[in-house]
Amino acid sequence: QCFDMLRRRRANKEDLCAEELWPVLEFQAEEEHLSGGEDAVLTRQMAHYLGTLPEPQQQVVRGIYLQEFSQQELAERLGVPLGTIKSRLRLALQKLKEQVEQGHD
């Protein structure tokens, strides 16, 4: 499933979506045969990966995915242009994806 996702991404040059990270993490959890605390382990892993991002990118990821602001709402709250939010989010998701894939190897 992960390899199919990567092939699709390379072939289509599509933008990265956060949903692409979760299949990799779920596969990793299955591989490690994690017990009932699987969600906690995945949450800790993502928190660790998120902590490695530059602060502006962390703010955007937290605002969009944890606080559930729209991109426009977050842009207004942070006082930056909408394009800046989109760029930071794209970069952050790309870095997170790379970290998740490296952790999976």
Structure notes:
By secondary structure, this protein is mainly α. It is 75% helix and 0% strand. The longest helix is centred in the C-terminal third of the chain and has 23 residues, at 82-104. It starts with a helix and ends with a helix.
Describe the structure concisely:
The chain has 105 residues and is an all-alpha fold. The chain is built from six helices and no strands.
Topology readout:
Blueprint: H1 2-12, H2 21-31, H3 38-51, H4 55-66, H5 71-78, H6 82-104
Helix pairs in contact: 2-6, 4-6, 5-6
User: What is the average per-residue confidence, as pLDDT, rounded to a whole number?
Assistant: 75
**Main beta sheet, described?**
none
- The portion of residues assigned to helices is over 70%
Shape verdict: globular
The ordered string of helix (H) and strand (E) elements is HHHHHH
Supply Rg: 15 Å
Report strand %. under 5%
Helical stretch tally: 6
Question: Which structural class do the helices and strands define?
Answer: mainly alpha
Q: Would you identify the regions where 5 or more consecutive residues have pLDDT less than 50?
A: 22-36
The termini sit apart by 15 Å
Could you give the count of β-strands?
Answer: 0
